[in-house]
Amino acid sequence: MTAFDDLMAHQRDTEALAGISGRLGWDQETMMPRGAAEQRGEEMAAIEGVLHARRTDPRVGDWLDAIDPSGLDAVAKAKLRHIRRDFERNSKVPAKLAAELARVTSVSQGKWAEARAAEDFAAFAPVLERVVGLKREEASALAGNGDLYDAMLDDYEPGATGAGLETLFSALRPRLVALREAVLGADHQPAQIEGSFEEAAQLQLAREMAQAFGYDFNRGRIDKAVHPFCSGSGADVRITTRTALTDPFSCVYSTIHETGHACYEQGIDPDFALTPLGQGVSLGVHESQSRIFENQLGRSRAFTGHLFDRMTALYGDLGIADADAFYGTVNRVAPGYIRTEADEVHYNLHILMRFDLERALISGGLEVADLPDAWNARFQKDFGVVVDKPSNGCLQDVHWSVGLFGYFPTYTLGNVYAGCLLKAMQTAVPDLDAQLAVGDTTAATGWLRENLQRFGGLREPRDTIAHACGFEPSEEPLLEYLEAKFRGIYGI
Amino acid sequence: MTAFDDLMAHQRDTEALAGISGRLGWDQETMMPRGAAEQRGEEMAAIEGVLHARRTDPRVGDWLDAIDPSGLDAVAKAKLRHIRRDFERNSKVPAKLAAELARVTSVSQGKWAEARAAEDFAAFAPVLERVVGLKREEASALAGNGDLYDAMLDDYEPGATGAGLETLFSALRPRLVALREAVLGADHQPAQIEGSFEEAAQLQLAREMAQAFGYDFNRGRIDKAVHPFCSGSGADVRITTRTALTDPFSCVYSTIHETGHACYEQGIDPDFALTPLGQGVSLGVHESQSRIFENQLGRSRAFTGHLFDRMTALYGDLGIADADAFYGTVNRVAPGYIRTEADEVHYNLHILMRFDLERALISGGLEVADLPDAWNARFQKDFGVVVDKPSNGCLQDVHWSVGLFGYFPTYTLGNVYAGCLLKAMQTAVPDLDAQLAVGDTTAATGWLRENLQRFGGLREPRDTIAHACGFEPSEEPLLEYLEAKFRGIYGI
């Protein structure tokens, strides 16, 4: 056994144990009896302890030092790059700080939920201050003299920087705001869907859509959960969905979204299983897959024509004139407080304000106590609406309560990447719309698997997109796509 | 922190990780997608590796040596007893042998399933020889100069010996054979149930029965699986069941059986959670709980009267005259090849022959090649029937293929213990039958929880039964119960 072999054998078990931890997370959200929460907490702490010990095992450092990379191929080098980055990251954070962060964030999520239910930001402010303080400490340990926010970003999107995202987002914002105003001011406004749609039919349609987008049920399953998510990698990638009685699109599109995440994981080269290359490479690239499935493909005029037929067959008359009107209904733009319910035009505006606010929180330019005012002022400026209560404002998302700073921008990065990927896909699959119109996504999802998904963690995130597209990613394709689509729907 | 505290903290995480391993086993049998089997194998190997390392960690030996037990209470001493036994056991088996056993038994189960399907014992014989050889090696490492079979028993029923069981079983056999012959020769024979019973109703009744027997759904759940089982401990104890279209009793009684196992785990003192006292103390004691739920309570004249009402309400006319006839139908005695389908009179005869055969295999008095002949001869002698094919004979059970020698006798030990517990319970709960007749098991299951279940692993297995009963366990109560019950039903 060489040092490389020893390191890979060690890593293989670490990956398997991390997979177990993920599976427990799935169980917790889908199957676990209510009364088991405390016991599960102990189990999660135990396996996280094992994982931390393995990831900071001094032998990992010794093996990394002992390996001569000169004779290694690109795959081996990529594995080492991931392991080295994780080892250095995990080793830099003092165990005491890591434990304190785990302790505080396990409590703070509950405090956030209580404060949100009580519409009482003041009750949440002290714990959020504590979380911000600890995350700043952690980022200092990681960044050395570097930027704190960049160190946080590195957890979710290696290679991304606050400055780079600021440039990108500054290019997006004015055109999104202009599009939003044009659309909302248009004479023609699509109808909303009305009626009541029984759960069994919604779940049947969700399974059909997952299948249509290439989800492999032999290596996964769909269950109901409070929040839709995707969990697992390799041969066991499970998704969840939810239903809303009066909104049949919620179940359909959250399922197609999670199918995008799942197909990325299922599409990775099986040779990468139980190595650091065996998962999606970053949150931004992951989100590009879920978003292109959900929006660029799933909400296209072509595919919604197919969906209109399927839903009419399932539910009878939908009260919508034809497939063109249905396309408008599916893509209806409406201002709203809640990010997770936002349409394609508004969604990134939600992210852009969170990015600016969280950077200010981390830099110290914004105090936690001033967050509601800052949020509400910015929301009014970008959305033209006054926030009516904290649960519709800065208490709506769980992320900050559990220390996820630097996470939000990956959602918009995913949308930007999805825009680039659609452009490249349209060139590679000239009759894409004709295929989608009959519900056939084989060429589209096959192109993504062949050019992006199968490579897993082989390349850095941005390079993963550039390799698939054949050009450097930028915001332009997303903006062109959004402007063309929504100007078309709204006749402007 | 004292050595005792350090040891308990170490043990706590080990117990939590063992709980995770068990939960993965549950997932594998109920939820896991088919295509994930190989990946799950890697995950199980990884966590078993972690558990083995923790259980044989030299620090455990150091802590055990450093602890002065003189000032400790009974609970602390019991914890140390379990930890010491496991540490010594795990440390005695060479890692190479343990790995080889794991490897061989992971393959041999598949070979057994193939051989059973093909009715080809010769195809299975070589791998069974290998398993027997490795188990003998393992037992030698454990037993030193002691008896090999006793060392194997120790895994499942600490304190039991082959000689002690032989004495017990010798007392059972003639009276069971005599009862069997009397019953089968009786003029009156109960009717079989006929008809088709839809799955949804069977599952509804199963849930109702689990509830009636005190299963806490807040700390558990019921799912379908190929084989009924109970999994987990403390606040997360899950059971599975199965349905058979033409046999509604299979689902009802396998559910009540697993509810017995589950209520034992759910009934243990919460203070024992994540300690070695936090699980049922042995397989025999565990089986006493499942059997007394299923048979002594669930198949009693009193409770079957309630069940008759419930099943009539659910399915309509069952084609059975009245509750007395129904009691006979539920308890119908019929010779059959298959242990898992056996009635109360035949069941222990199945176990007694397996006990003698496996002891002979381990002692070397019986060669694997001669097993089918030995099995068939013994079956004809005890059951009066010629075995027609290996799947109805020595290939019917999975146990030996995976190295479970010393496991079978715990089933009959459980029945013997259940007989003792019923006798004690009848004294403690004078109006037991009146309660069961209206489906109220509260006093019965409460008596078991109070006098046995809550103590978990505090006492040795036999002492656990003796403490609950107030007398030393013996075969007599079980035999008296069986003779009275079946002579009554068959009018002999």
Please, could you describe this protein's structure?
Two copies of one chain form a homodimer. Chain A is mostly helical. Chain A folds into two domains: about 5-145, no CATH class; about 145-190 and about 255-490, Neurolysin, domain 3, CATH 1.10.1370.30. Chain A is built from 20 helices and three strands. The first copy, chain A, has helices spanning about 5-30, 35-55, 60-65, 75-90, 95-120, 120-145, 150-155, 160-185, 200-210, 250-265, 285-295, 300-315, 325-330, 345-365, 370-385, 410-430, 430-435, 440-450, 460-470, 475-490, and strands at about 220-225, 230-235, 235-240. A three-stranded mixed sheet of chain A has the order 1-3-2, with helices on both faces. In chain A, a hairpin with a 2-residue loop joins strand 2 and strand 3 (about 235-240). The longest helix of chain A is centred in the N-terminal third of the chain and has 28 residues, at about 5-30. The N and C termini of chain A lie far apart (about 65 Å). The mean pLDDT of chain A is about 95. Chains A and B meet through helix 1 and helix 2 of A and helix 1 and helix 2 of B.
